[in-house]
Amino acid sequence: MTPAIKPQPEGKRALLADCHGAAAGRTVVDAPTIALVGCPNVGKSAVFRLLTGIRAGVGNYPGTTVDIGRGVWRVAPGRQVNVLDLPGTYSLDPMSPDEQLVHDLLVMDSPDLVIAVVDAVNLARSLYLVAQLREQSGRVIVVLTMTDVLGRRGHPIDVGALRDAIGVPVVTVDGRSGGVPAELGEATVRALAGAPTPARQVGDQFAGVDPQLAAAAERFEWVRQVEQLAMGTGASSPKTTGSDRVDQIVCNRWLGPIIFLAAMFGVFMITTKAAAPLQEWLAVLVEGPVTSGLATFFGWFGWADGVVASFVIDGVVTGVGAVLTFIPLMIIMFGLLALLEDSGYMARAAVVADRLMRAVGLPGRAFIPMIVGFGCNVPAVAATRVIPNARHRLLTVLLLPFVSCNARLTVYVLVGTVFFGANAGYVVFAMYVLSVVLVVVVGRLLRGVMFRDISPEPLLIDLPPYHLPMPRLVAAVTWQRLRAFLRTATGIIVITSAAVWVLSATPAIGIDRGADGASDTAGFGQVSVADSLYGQVSQAVAPVFDPAGFGNWEATSALITGFVAKEAVIAAWAQTYATDEPADERDPGELGALLQADFEESSGGHAAAAVLAFMVFLLAYTPCLTTLAAQRREIGMRWTLFGVGVQLVVAWTLAVAVFQIGRLL
Question: What is the model's pTM?
């Protein structure tokens, strides 16, 4: 007879309700709480996905889990438990906000059961955390991963001996390709039905020494004994693996950066070239059947030329169409990055970037949020929680807006294709290189002026063995990131597009349009964009950009809209020029011709220099409002506003320099 699972106490319900809010995932009221804990990169998030079915981020590099994942595991027929995926930590001695959170949840608000995920390849490193868990009163199960990798290296592990040495259930799980073993569910049910294990006292073997040092010394001795029992005393010395041989090249001081740049160049070139057919198909779908269908629908009621039809078609549908044309770019970019992550390369990229980060005064692990920032700056800001030092964390958050996110990519592709044709891919790649240069240069300046007290720290990072990327995992990660992007961007773009339409339809007061000099203001929805409130505000701001070569109000209006969301720049241009968005950013058609004409005029015939200045300003100026909200949450309003000021000054200065030098060349 299967033991009954005891109801969850009131305190555990509070833990689930208050930890990260309802948005963190599904929960079951009055169900036990299980916490997944483990060192970074041991496969913990993969185990979480297997248990709950939630496609959480599963990257093959440290620092993947920066927030608490939450889901429901059907542990047995008719029985469910709540599962928390805690951030990775090497011990219960907190050195960063994430590790402090793990400490508080495990020590102060102990869950009903802790599942410790242990990497068989790096057994000793994971066992120290297990040793600390044994010192807490509670229930513990050990899940062993990477046993297949260890077996291929000729060092099989004795699971039975490990179970006896630790004194808790040990279950082997293949988080990459396997399912949930029935043994794990049975062990969980038994553990939840049993009494908690009493806390184990440590430090007695080393009397006379500082209590903390004594406890640590005893843990290390225990880890040594357990590893010896599990691996066998006659095990041969570790052999040089294929991963080790590859790392001699990939992590080389000189070859490493070249390989990394080549990999990123390949990602951007493939993204810009492969997305075109899919973008064209989606744009045709929106501009053809969807738009014509809506026009026919409004025509049935006699509203085809009315304000409502214009708002829905020209305002809302334009915004949705902009989101849809981003999808192929996002899928390809996220998919390629997921391939690099699942292969194990991104951890090596952090090693390669360590020297670059040290030039700014940041630790190598700051590279992880930077990589996330190339997808979206919002989760990148949250990812800074893996950085232990508060001053390092603050500087990283201030520099992240200079990392070129995917939202800017579509604008790069459109503008690059219009003005540089077949060389657009090189221009786009150059923008990403400039993004890295800005991080380093601005970081050096800020460090020299305001962060003189910080110093670089040594990089401590686990290099996972290389894997052949698994299509199922790559697809899961790609979908999870695409869904997060769409969830954030869709609402912002639709609201922004609708707002731009309203402002474009609202006549500015006192526009002199008559021959006699009298005010001749058209009604709502009947005014030209240039004479609208939107156009007049843009015209008032435009002279600021005259020294940069794009002091036309059409470019200025797009930048104003981009302050809300960079994704909306193209949609804003489409509404400004009263034309459809391009079916394919690589074949922009009428919109491209209008852009060329305006940049030629505003730059005095130096359109190429002006458009490069525009792209540089788009790269460096204030991030979207969502990123600003994330920064405010992490570093406060004062530092966020300081960052906005720095970004605007840097963006304008660089744009002016690019144009003024470019027109001479």
Answer: 0.66
